[in-house]
Design a protein that fits this description.
The chain is of the alpha/beta class. The chain has three domains: 89 residues, Translation factors (Elongation Factor Tu (Ef-tu), domain 3); 113 residues, Nucleotide-binding domain of ferredoxin-NADP reductase (FNR) module (Rossmann fold); 90 residues, Roll (Ubiquitin-like (UB roll)). Helix content is 19%, strand content 31%. The protein has seven helices and 18 strands. The strands form four sheets. It has a six-stranded antiparallel beta sheet with strand order 4-3-6-1-2-5. It is globular, with a radius of gyration of 20 Å. The relative contact order is 0.11. Keywords: 2Fe-2S, Flavoprotein, Iron, Iron-sulfur, Metal-binding, Methyltransferase, Oxidoreductase, Transferase. InterPro entries: 2Fe-2S_ferredoxin-like_sf, 2Fe-2S_ferredoxin-type, 2Fe2S_fd_BS, Beta-grasp_dom_sf, FAD-bd_FR_type, FNR_nucleotide-bd, MRET, OxRdtase_FAD/NAD-bd. This is Vanillate O-demethylase ferredoxin subunit.
Length: 318
């Protein structure tokens, strides 16, 4: 863990604050690549992940931008209450959403606060001279963090703004945008869960190969499956042979924790990948949005915070 203090708090857009973090002694922080995030340990005990929203111009600082979500479970409200001088603990940067190629064209599509991991991507692509388009979808300029700077920035010619509440702009034509970039292009999309899902479904309909589709969810889409449809199963620990019953209203990670088996957990929604565990035997019932469709089909990994088992026993490599 890294001890940091809040160096600055800036209102970037309607309900969006940018938080600048640094060590108290102003020593350098670990470097990171575009798409990375950090875990922030809040004073209440909550742990939340936020994308680093700008490449480091100064290696003493990290920057995150956070939307105050009315449906928040507490994390974004607490971040918005932070003041200059407040102390926090953070993790080193981790990256589950990296740029995979600078040689092929990149299509960046952001919905609202989903702009945060895509900004460092655009910076990296621009600095390398790579080909890319950046589509930014929001309600209005007032709701679009960093839009004023992006309109006049070093890659302003790559920017396309789509404001649903501005008649002269309007919503992005997703089909048209994806159709124009179908051949040998990497798609990176981030934003609200339903926004990401809509873009990915359209891309698959148009024939985009899954290997070209990259996404990062901040929250999970609403699940149709309810707790009453869950069935009990046994989770088995491969290294020890221990076996524990997972009830209808329990998760694998909860049962492991209750029985003293440590497994790191953060989002509890199958979004972040923190609790990803290898499957030795059994068939997972995937409830996450982190793994790809191919990884779901292979059944070699499971998100213990939300997924279940289709077989009576699921053996994990723990």
């Amino acid at each position: 863990m890294i001890a940091v203090v809040v160096k600055n708090v800036v209102l970037e857009a309607h309900s969006v604050v940018r938080i600048v973090l640094g060590r108290e002694d102003n020593e350098r922080l670990p470097t990171f690549e575009a798409g990375a995030h950090i875990e922030i340990h809040l004073s209440s005990g909550l742990v939340r992940q936020y994308s680093l929203c700008r490449l480091q111009a100064d290696d003493r600082y990290y920057e995150i931008a956070v939307l105050k979500d009315p449906e928040s479970r507490g994390g974004s409200r607490q971040v918005h209450a932070l003041k200059i001088g407040d102390r926090l603990s953070i993790s080193e940067p981790r990256n589950h959403f990296p740029l995979v190629s600078l040689k092929r064209k990149s299509l960046l599509i952001a919905g609202g606060i989903g702009v945060t991991p895509l900004l460092p991507m655009a910076q990296t692509l621009a600095q390398s001279g790579a080909d890319f388009e950046f589509h930014y979808c929001s309600k209005s300029p007032d709701h679009a963090a960093f839009s004023s700077a992006l309109e006049v920035g070093s890659f302003a010619d790559k920017m396309h703004f789509h404001y649903s509440q501005v008649s002269s702009s309007g919503r992005m034509d997703v089909r048209e945008t994806l159709s124009e970039n179908l051949v040998d292009v990497e798609l990176y999309v981030c934003g609200p869960a339903n926004f990401i899902t809509a873009v990915l479904e359209e891309a698959k309909t148009l024939g985009w190969p899954e290997i070209r589709l990259h996404r990062e969810f901040f929250s999970a889409p609403a699940q149709e499956t309810t707790a009453t449809e869950n069935t009990e199963f046994t989770v088995k620990i491969f290294s020890t042979g221990e076996a524990f019953l997972v009830g209808e209203d329990q998760t694998i990670s909860q049962v492991l924790d209750e029985n003293g088996v440590f497994l790191p957990v953060s989002c509890e929604e199958g979004v972040c990948g923190t609790c990803m565990t290898q499957v030795v035997d059994g068939i997972p019932d995937h409830r996450d949005v982190f793994l790809t469709d191919k990884e779901h089909q292979e059944g070699k990994l499971v998100m213990a915070c939300c997924s279940r088992s289709k077989t009576k026993t699921l053996t994990l490599d723990l």
